[in-house]
Amino acid sequence: MRGNTGRAVAGRLFGRRARLRWVHLILGGALLMPYWLLGTVVAGPLLGGQAMFASSPAVQFTAYAIALPLAAVTALFPLTRPMSVAAARSLCGVAEGRFAEGPADSRDARLRTAGWYTLHVGLGGLVSGATLALPPFAVTTMLLPFSPGLRASAVAHFWSLDQEWLVYGGVPAGLLMLLALVAAAACAGSFMARQAPRLLGPTPADRLAAAERRAAELAVRNRLARELHDSVGHALSAVTLQAGAARRVLDSDAAADVAFVREALAAIEETTRRTVGELDAVLGLLRQGEDDGELPGPGLEALDGLLAGAAAAKVGLRIGEGLDRVPAAVSREAYRIVQEGLTNAVRHAGGQPVTGWIGVDGEELEIVMENPLPAGGPVVRPGGGRGLRGLEERARLLGGTAASGPVGEVWRLATRLPVGGGR
């Protein structure tokens, strides 16, 4: 038990973490130097015109007292926090997640950073001064019993080391001084590490900003997921339907309808080519890791190509007037809504015809799609899908409405979007 305790104490005093914290304190002492030099300029006249670099303790500590408020003022700049965080994260042994990120933008964050910086340079100046002065003094004290000439020297007299008792107690006294320095540095480093999360950690404003950033990132990811789902899901459903129809035609008769098969293959080619382009655009955003607010993709101007690619689904969708004045954002979402409606009809309705219309009604874009409910029940994928939920989210984000479900003997999708633009 005693051995374990001794090793634990030695680790706290001489371990790697203690050494790094000591380096952090010495860095604080180095940062204090410009403020301390400026303080000595002021301290000399205040203390009766003493020299700027006088060795008087009064001048030294007066300059130290003047330096600390100067350091606090300069630490109010926002960029002080990321620099302080970088040093504390590397040297203080504090978990990375407990620090705030970015400049100190709020008043509370700037005041906390100023407090940390003042504490860093203040304690660092004291520890650095002791680190420079105490080891030579302690070594000299330990050498006194072995050097009569040293005991009679001016250095020993200046430091009051010509006392008789030091002839016998110089070595223990010197070792105790060094141990006291190590213990003081370890305690100061531990104190700084405890204060780091409190003074350099996120403020309530930082946590709110981080939560908003995470929400924005999740929103972008959801938008990209909807784009991928709608684009790829529709393409696969259309290609599956076209390929299945072509296969059935080829299997039904040796004299197959070559024109129909050629048309199905052309539709497959066009659908896959269009989808690859859309997929490249969305994956490009994922590679960039950011979103410019406007996802790329086709709009209502590409509706004819979409309906042509779904020819085997027997689509009879009437297109009204006024689509040219639909805003670009609404146009893209409307295209995806029509695409998802066709995908659901192909996937779940067993090849039933799809009818409806799309057009501007007053200040709203109206999309209505219907298909008869299949007699044998819809074809449902294992595990279900998220297409209709994503469709409702698209409409809601634009300030519109979307509803889908059975009405009598048909399945109806009805969507209304404001043409004045999305929120």
Automatic annotation (TrEMBL):
Keywords: ATP-binding, Kinase, Membrane, Nucleotide-binding, Phosphoprotein, Transferase, Transmembrane, Transmembrane helix, Two-component regulatory system. The chain crosses the membrane at residues 20-38, 58-79, 116-145, 165-188. GO terms for molecular function: ATP binding; phosphorelay sensor kinase activity; protein dimerization activity. This is histidine kinase. GO terms for cellular component: membrane. Its EC number is 2.7.13.3. The lineage of its organism: Bacteria, Bacillati, Actinomycetota, Actinomycetes, Kitasatosporales. It catalyses: ATP + protein L-histidine = ADP + protein N-phospho-L-histidine. Gene3D superfamilies: 1.20.5.1930, Histidine kinase-like ATPase, C-terminal domain. Residues 221-290 form the Signal transduction histidine kinase subgroup 3 dimerisation and phosphoacceptor domain. Pfam families: HisKA_3. InterPro entries: HATPase_C_sf, Sensor_HK_TwoCompSys, Sig_transdc_His_kin_sub3_dim/P. It comes from the Bacteria. Signal peptide: none annotated.
